[in-house]
Amino acid sequence: MPRRDDIKSVMVIGSGPIVIGQACEFDYSGTQACRVLRDEGIRVVLVNSNPATIMTDPEFSDATYIEPITPEFVERIIAKERPDALLPTLGGQTALNTAIALHKNGVLEKYGVELIGADVDAIERGENREMFKKIVAEIGAESARSVICHSLQECLDAVDELGYPMVVRPSFTMGGAGSGMAYNEEDLRRIAGAGLQASPTTEILLEESILGWKEYELELMRDHRDNVVVICSIENLDPMGVHTGDSITVAPALTLTDREFQRMRDVGIEIIRAVGVDTGGCNIQFAVNPEDGRLIVIEMNPRVSRSSALASKATGFPIAKIAARLAVGYTLDEIPNDITKETPASFEPTLDYIVVKVPRFAFEKFPNADSTLTTTMKSVGEAMAIGRNFTEALQKALRSLEKKEAVFSWPATKAEVNIVELKATMGRPHDGRLSLVQLALWAGVSPEEVFDITKIDPWFLDQICLINEIADEVRAASQLDYETLRYAKRHGFSDLQISRLRGLTEAEVRGQRHELGLRPVYKTVDTCAAEFAAKTPYHYSAYDEETESIPSDREKVIILGSGPNRIGQGIEFDYSCVHAALTLREAGYETIMVNCNPETVSTDYDTSDRLYFEPLTLEDVLEIVHAESAAGKLAGVIVQLGGQTPLGLAQVLKDAGVPIVGTSPESIHLAEERGAFGRVLAEAGLIAPKHGMAASFPQAQAIAAEVGYPVLVRPSYVLGGRGMEIVYDDAMLADYLERSTEINVDHPVLVDRFLDDAIEIDVDALYDGKELFLAGVMEHIEEAGIHSGDSACALPPITLGASQIDRIRKSTEAIAKGVGVLGLLNVQYALASDVLYVLEANPRASRTVPFVSKATAVHVAKAAARVMMGQSIAELRKQGILPELGDGGTLPDGCAVSVKEAVLPFGRFQGVDTVLGPEMRSTGEVMGLDDTFGVAFAKAQDAASGALPTSGTVFVSLADRDKRAAIFPLMRLSDLGFKILATSGTADVLRRNGVKCEVIRKAFEGTGEAGEPTTVDAIMNGDIQLIINTPYGVGARLDGYEIRTAAVMKGVPSITTVQGLGAVVQGIDSLQHEESTVRSLQEHGADLDRLRAAQRDSLLASMKEA
Amino acid sequence: MSSREPAVLVLEDGRVMHGERYGAAGVTFGEAVFSTGMSGYQETLTDPSYDRQVVVMTAPHIGNTGVNEEDLESTKIWVAGYVVRDPSRVSSNWRSTGDLASALDKQGIVGISGVDTRALTRHLRERGAMKVGIFSGDAAKLSVAELLTQVQASPAMAGANLTDEVSTDKAYVVPALGAKKFTVAAIDLGIKSMTPEMMAARGIEVHVLPAASSVDEILALNPDGVFFSNGPGDPATADAAVATMTEMLQKKMPVFGICFGNQILGRALGLGTYKLRYGHRGINQPVQDLRTGKVEITAHNHGFAVDAPRDGDFDTPFGKAQVSHVCLNDDVVEGLRCLEVPAFSVQYHPEAAAGPHDSAYLFDEFIELMSTSGKVRA
Q: Residue A36: how many CB atoms within 10 A of its CB?
């Protein structure tokens, strides 16, 4: 049956901001869906609050709404756009939940919108634990056995059935309090006894433990004619107990016999049918007991997930794309396999390579967070690698992480390895455990013992033993001959690893290798293990015989991606890379993408002419350059768009003779190196905050004394404000230097005067060597000192005047010229007492490029790619890629205001302080767009963390320095009908200024004699709707910490800066007094076109008059 | 370097690949074919249909779960040679009773590892299945020219009658599980053990008979139906089996055929068979049931196929018949159904092992066919 012709328009809901557990994989799936639906001639209405996504570029949908993904806003968009259908399965849990809410509250029915690709009952059957368990039993499969008990005797009776260890879960306790693992009767009596007491219903659930079992996942698809296929099997190297998002995972499953695998497949198919997933994809997780093969079904996701993105990249089978087609009526056999073009999609991909995915964590950003890996996901990104065997894929994946400690290494002697300590620590799953396992095995701990401790399957352990044996062989070889080198390379050893084993430099190893004629070949991901010819050039390297990558004679450009997502380097950089690929392809170049992040649009084989799924290291990139140089001219490599990862390769690539496109590595250095940059500024007559560089405490102290406290300290060459702190006195400075162990003469610490109370301004610009295009001027809400990535900002800048913008333009131009920028430039300024300070300049794509593009309706990333390839801004204006006249600094009057707000992961890391600082900790961002700042800001808050309250109680506790500035906004809040509770000191000040308020007890004072609650009590009781709590600078932060932590737990908005307070009050004011609009980016673009035309006409008229 | 012994793989067209010995040392020849299944190597190795074939595994890691007593599809390893990329050094599975390399060695199966199996697969895809030789031990020291001469002199698959090599010597019975409902005579042309098991599980007592069994011997069992199994070789040479099939059709005996059995039915119906360029070998093949339009993911192992009209019914000496199943990858005929006599067959493997269980319903259809057809008397 071909596609339904009754569906003319479809609404797609995205997944909102990047958060832990829901990242840019949904940009990949959503972008695919939008493309497919439009190819089908269907009008696509998209809702997604995340401006950093490719999918929210106006060209990917017919109507793109960057609005909060809430039932209220989505209803308004439905009312306006009247789509025929809603496709909710491609935007993660966020989209699914919103769609279900709209179904339940009758909105879909009211507007005649059909839910496609999902069935609400099926979703409930899949997601409701009890219902799901029942289904599993009905089809004759097993869930983990459990017994509900109401007495200790019942618990003891359950032991026969469940066996030790068992999980004890008291019912209805807060946050699962009182849960534990019982390994014996003593444990059981203790935990269950306490649990029965703690449970309000004197009830506990005992469940058999499946910790340490093998864990698997199947990705399935079903069409409306009940054809079901298994796209991919994934095996977790980390056994049960670690969230699959945090596990090292492998595709295909490697340690199952066909009988076991087919049993799993049968159960999976039975489940997708019984649950009734209408059309589309789902994934099902299984546990297998390594001792007897017993199969247990864990859970299912009745939608496209992070795993399906991984499975798509791992197999070449584009799940989201196919799911979108199935949703509009096609069957699997009617859809051609994208890669072969000739065979149908109704088959099961088979792999002739191994895929390994490794998670990337950010615990260094959250030092107080527990780094033990559990069933709650904690990683912020992932890298994937493909190899012809497991060892090759694993080692490539580990070096793709760009964390040097993740790459296997070997000490000089085995005696150096502390086996006792390794054994003690490797039982706890945590980031870096695999390296401990590898070291332990190398040092002589038997695989059997490692298995006992870690439960990692013996097959994987043997593969690590193999890697260790090869390392020993490489080290012991009399010379690095062809055989030895080939053996190591075939198991994924990098030149760098080999050089360390041999006491050589990486370049020496590479030189010897090339001399021996040993280079990788490039194989193809083709879904079918070469049974059919592949039409899609999706490649990976391997040290094998035959290469399949065939460069054409066309002029080529290689774009280096940004690698695994991390805090400070995420989807925003992928955005620029993707646009470069698209626009340069259009401009006639053969575009070649290199990246190792499976979540992204850049690693979709549709994005560029050729995709190399490879680590972004010098070695891997050089080999690709070599392969691509076999035919046609290589115009160059783009390093400017993928963030710090490719930027870090600029100089070494150039040194190796590789042409770098755009800003030269020398110019990049000029901007990054303090002294050189200082000279650039001096020549242009620009000012930077006073600063200095120190390699020791006395040096730092001297600088601090000269520039004056507070000072901003940070290591040189960092991204995302890593290790950056504001220091108020000598003691704090000493403490900082003591903690920063890597500070030395080669890696000095930067000490800058910290500009208190300054307005921070972020600028993105394009420079072609002659002309500057000021793409966007963003005014931060929070003061300078809060990392720009964590700060909200507005565009157009809300308080800057034309003369200030003019100064910014001139300064930016001077920097661009002085540094020698060709392409993008991001500059951060601070405006204090009307003095414009240059904080830093980065001659590369910034995090804000997508936001600026959307707010100003200009293709900044596309234009940048073209400028790098040699086109001038004047030419781009003529071609319509840039506006005919003006730029982001001359936005016309009447231009809607865009507000960007950061989304922070504090909910994931309990106990981590939520105070914003110079170190970036946000994972994602949202955008609010409306006529005025207040409404746009309120929308951004709604999208980021829930709607601002319009009534209720506000708790206020202010640092002394903030009290003065806070009086006015608090007075307004009071006028707006809010009740104000304050700590005594703050209350005194407020009362004196005529603001009505009540005093509330501080947490450390404890609950009062008459039961008067403390702030924390009140928050936990749900009596407080808004918290304003600015930190007290030095020390005495404990009370604030408890308040902020309670706020995170209860999801109460918590404002930690006085500038944030002002914005929030403006937002609340707007919510009470103004109407918000819903407007698509296409409408916004049309408005801007109209306004720009009017601006041009009046300009021409005034010129005429003159 | 470790104790890796060199081995050489030489194709009939002169392509040479170097690797290491895997399994037994020595020399072997056969038809080079590739199998794309990612699981089930033990079933593949012991599938008699692979007799005289050198199997290239596209999945890189082979042997991870070792070998066990339960997953054997016959009593021995049938492949003539085995080509893998990365053989496992350990066996990791709770059912494992031994490791694959030793099993190969013990049964004298010459294999090679460490070769670019993907390149080899692409070569076979482009140029078709062809003769191959694997040489290890002393033989690996000969010149490539000498090895090539040996390979070219080895027998070809086209025109090969291998039924006698693989068929059972003596009849044996696989008893029905639970109450016996039917008796089936299964003509062993290279039968896999899962096939009688699938039937037994449905209450069929299966009498597995040597391929050379006469019609009288078959009818003497008073069967409710006759089954023609899978097996190796060129169906064009299987005249004896075709004659038996013809007699069964004449008697309106309920007949079910799998793989080689499908080709035998096709020939008895007057259809031709032909050699595919590189065959179907894997467990991910999409087959459409033309009656329902539904797609099954199926296990395949066939180098030959039946030539039949795909659209509509066609005439045969036994009345009208139709193509019931096709492979969606390449439109190859995957099933035949007679409309006027109780006979049907499929080219693929509903018994799976290795492979998906999507097509197990065909055994139920066989039961149905036997239930609704009158009993044929001897």
A: 21
* Averaged pLDDT for residues A646-664: 95
Phi-psi region of A1066 (alpha: psi -120 to 50; beta: other; left: phi over 0): alpha
d(CA A329, CA A8): 12
- Long-range pairs, B331-336, Cβ under 8 A, ≥24: B332/B276, B332/B280, B332/B305, B333/B266, B333/B305, B333/B306, B333/B307, B333/B308, B334/B262, B334/B287, B334/B298, B335/B262, B335/B287, B335/B289, B336/B262, B336/B265, B336/B266, B336/B269, B336/B271, B336/B306, B336/B308
Of B40, B86, B284, the CB nearest to A348: B284
Q: Biggest alpha carbon distance in chain A?
A: 97
- Whether chain B has a CB inside 8 Å of the CB on A293: the answer is yes
User: Each residue of B300-314: pLDDT tens digit?
Assistant: 999 999 999 998 999
pLDDT for position A904? 87
Residue written as tokens 């290689």?
A558
pTM of the model: 0.94
Shortest CA gap A263–chain B (Å)? 9
Q: Report which secondary-structure segment, H or E, holds A784.
A: none
Confidence of residue A703 (pLDDT cuts 50, 70, 90): very high
Q: Which phi and psi (to 5°) does residue A1053 adopt?
A: -55, 135
Q: What percent of chain B has pLDDT over 70?
A: 98
**What's the gap in Å between the CA of A184 and the closest CA on chain B?**
26
Q: For residue B65, give the nearest of A256, A292, A351 by CB distance.
A: A256
- The tokens for B186 are 């299964």
What tokens does A704 get?
Answer: 């601090």
CA–CA dist A825, A822 (Å, integer): 8
Residue of B nearest to A448 (CA): B92
Most B CBs within 10 A among A1, A224, A255, A258, hence the mutation to make, goes to A258
Q: Is B293 on the interface with A (CB under 8 A)?
A: yes
- Just list the catalytic residues of B: 259, 349, 351
Instruction: Please check whether residue B241 is in contact with residue B189, taking contact to mean a CB–CB distance below 8 angstroms.
Output: yes
Each residue of A865-885: b (16+ CB within 10 Å) or e? bbbbbebebeebbeeebbbee
User: Do residue B116 and residue A462 have CB atoms under 8 angstroms apart?
Assistant: no
Lowest mean pLDDT among A464-468, A735-739, A919-923, B194-198: A735-739
Cβ-in-10-Å burial (0-12, 13-18, 19+) of B73 comes to: buried
- The Cα–Cα gap between A986 and A970 comes to 11
Q: Scanning every residue of chain A, which has its alpha carbon at the shortest distance from the alpha carbon of B96?
A: A257
pLDDT at position A304, please? 87
From the list B1, B117, B328, the residue facing A333 with the nearest CB is B328
Q: What is the average pLDDT score of chain A?
A: 92
Are B58 and B117 in contact by the 8 Å Cβ rule? The answer is yes
Q: Do B58 and A352 touch (CB under 8 A)?
A: yes
pLDDT of A360 strictly over 50:
yes
Predicted local confidence at residue A278, as pLDDT: 83
Return the sign of the alpha-carbon dihedral for residues A834, A839, A842, A846: negative
3-state secondary structure of A229: strand
In the prediction, which pLDDT does B2 show? 42
Q: Which chain B residue has the Cα nearest residue A269?
A: B358
Q: Nearest chain B residue to A349 by CA: give it.
A: B284
Does B284 sit within 8 Å of A532, measured CB to CB?
A: no
CA distance B180 to chain A (A): 25
Chain B contacts in chain A segment 899-918 (CB below 8 A): none
Under a CB-based contact definition with an 8 Å cutoff, are residues A664 and A647 in contact? no
* B7 neighbors B20 (Cβ within 8 angstroms): yes
A512 interface with B at CB cutoff 8 Å: no
* Mean pLDDT in residue range A111-125: 91
Structure tokens at B255: 């007949």
Cβ atoms of B43 and B67 within 8 Å: the answer is: no
